[in-house]
Amino acid sequence: MSQIADAISYLKRSLDLARSKELRPYVIIPLIFNIVVFGGLYWASGSWISGWIAASTADWAFTGFWSFLNGALEFMLDAAIILVWILLLALFASIFSIGVQLIAAPFMGFLAEKVDFQVTGHPMPEESIPAMIVRTFKRELRKTWYWLWRALLVLFVVGVIYFIPVINIFASAIWFLWSGWLLGMQYIDFGADNRQVPFEVMLQRLQKKRWLVLTFGAVVMGLTMIPLVNLFIMPVAVIAGTLIWVEQLSDSEQGTVNS
């Protein structure tokens, strides 16, 4: 229970840190960029579809005895256009979060470095750019292999359970918890990667705090499912993941530092 409470506490602290003067630029710059891209695509798509509906129905009108229905027809067409805007908002807010993570990934690495240094006071290890590129590429390959075959195995288990009466109610919960673990690992790994901690060592330390990692990832997973909130949660999750690594999972020298 203490690990679960810690996960919630770290997310609350991260909200405060995200608004701090030191971290604000690393949060606001990618956020503004993402909102501008999101808003532009949303407005362009909604305007095009609304214009198409208006042009396609311009000649729609009842005549003669049924002309009294024209008011209701106009109301229905206006309601259809409003519904299009609402559905587009939900669709873009859900799908666009994937693009947000890809676009903002470099900024998130810098954000994690800033949080680490602010909490520990220790500079990042020195490393040349070519060495960093090779190291991070190898790490991403290792990380992909870690989750890929396990995800297929979990998917198989969930698929089998789904067809078993009564037990099938746990299928969605299993997949949600597994996704939460992966998400927690992903955000915590920003801090570990900046300190050049090997992936296997990072995993060993995560396993010592399973409920902390799982709760953290599951809460973030739930927040990413809320339209628009998923555009703001990523930098907060990066800050929380870095704090968890520094204060709970790193070596004893850094782990004793508390902000």
UniProtKB/TrEMBL annotation:
InterPro entries: CysZ-like, CysZ/EI24. NCBIfam families: PRK04949.1 (NF003433). GO terms for cellular component: plasma membrane. It comes from the Bacteria. Its main location: membrane. The keyword Membrane applies. GO terms for molecular function: high-affinity sulfate:proton symporter activity. Coiled coil: none annotated. This is CysZ family protein. One of its GO terms (biological process) is cysteine biosynthetic process. It is a multi-pass membrane protein.
